[in-house]
Amino acid sequence: MMLIWDPPIVANLVFCIIILVMGIWIYKKTKNKLPLYFGIALGLFGISHVAAILGLATDLAYPLLVTRVIGYLIFIYIMYKYLKP
Q: N or C: which end of the chain has fewer CB within 10 A?
């Protein structure tokens, strides 16, 4: 397995991990679920970055598509919950 150290992908992965950890941390402090959902959504996007770094993005195209769609659906849910009175 050959690792692909593309700086933008690595940077995106690092930020996804930071946001995931912060979402969990904020949830634990405030019990507000929206930051947790936000972190989970970004964590799902991080999975595709890991696959790209590991050189598996092409082989896992369909599972990664499903993973990203779930991430986007979580974002849509966050926006809905935020706008809901």
A: C
Residue 68's Cβ-count burial label (10 Å; 0-12, 13-18, 19+) is middle
pLDDT tens digits, one per residue of 61-71? 999 999 999 99
pTM for this model (two decimals) = 0.88
Give the structural domain span for 25. Answer: 8-83
Kindly state whether residue 77 falls inside one of the protein's structural domains: yes
- So what's the pLDDT on residue 36? 96
Distances (CA, A) of 10 to 3, 14, 16, 51, 66: 11, 6, 10, 11, 21
Q: Show the tokens assigned to 52.
A: 């790209």
